[in-house]
Amino acid sequence: MGGPSRHPWLSRYVPVLPRPAEAGRGLGKRGLWPASTGWDMLVVRNTVVGPFAENTLLVGDGETGEAILIDPGGTGGTGSPGGDLERTLLMREPGAFRIARIFLTHGHIDHVAGCAEAKGRLGVPCQIHRGDAAWLDAIPQQAEMFGFEGARERPDIDHFHEDGETFTLGEHEGRIIHTPGHSRGSCCLFFEKARILFAGDTLFAGSVGRTDLPGGDFEALERSIREKLFPLGDDVRFFPGHGPSATLGDERSQNPFVGEVARRGRFV
Ligand SMILES: [Zn+2]
Prior knowledge:
It is built from eight helices and 15 strands. It is an alpha/beta fold. The chain has one domain (3-267): 4-Layer Sandwich (Metallo-beta-lactamase, Chain A). The strands form three sheets. Strands 1-2-3-4-5-6-7 form a seven-stranded mixed sheet, with helices on one face. Strand 3 (54-61) and strand 4 (66-70) form a beta hairpin. It is globular, with a radius of gyration of 17 Å. The termini are far apart. Zinc ion is lined by residues 9, 106, 108, 182, 201.
């Protein structure tokens, strides 16, 4: 989308994060990030897909091999030369992870474009917050507006999740945190024991999600991050929907929109 000057899914106020050199197409044969990294036996892998360089993530329990696929935004269709969906499914190797469910952080096209296709291939349930159901209904319009030629199909949603809901992934418990702001139904997924958070487009390394699309609300986003994410702990490593990972501590102090530097700036 026209070079690195501005990313369409980041806040319009922010300089853009360059596509991380260590993530995505340039990395290794499988596009894993970073190859295979475990925190307390949770394995996180990433592949960068689609025209907006979205992070599709796999989180797997190293003991049982059970995994969750997060935001399959890449399709195998004509809009995605190179087969984003194939690379997405390759994240199951090595280790032969078995994807048990698809988790959608929100309903924007770059995060859901490949969901119907991935769900069909994997035969697993898929879930999202009800607040973003309207974005799924609008997939054809979103696809047209943002140039996702391979994605026209609305995925069937098996479950609408809510704030505070939990599920197990092997030995781990994942908790859903509703973080409205980037969209009404935006949610994060937190693994407390492993200290890992999947942040969707709510929080980025050095930035926050844009809030000028329908359903966006900057004050809600600020509250979500400051009141629901930062209290999880400075040591928590988060994986956003675009760009590199960072820790919540990095953002609590340095993030120019919601960190301490932003508060200081406001009162000078
Ligand atoms: Zn988004």
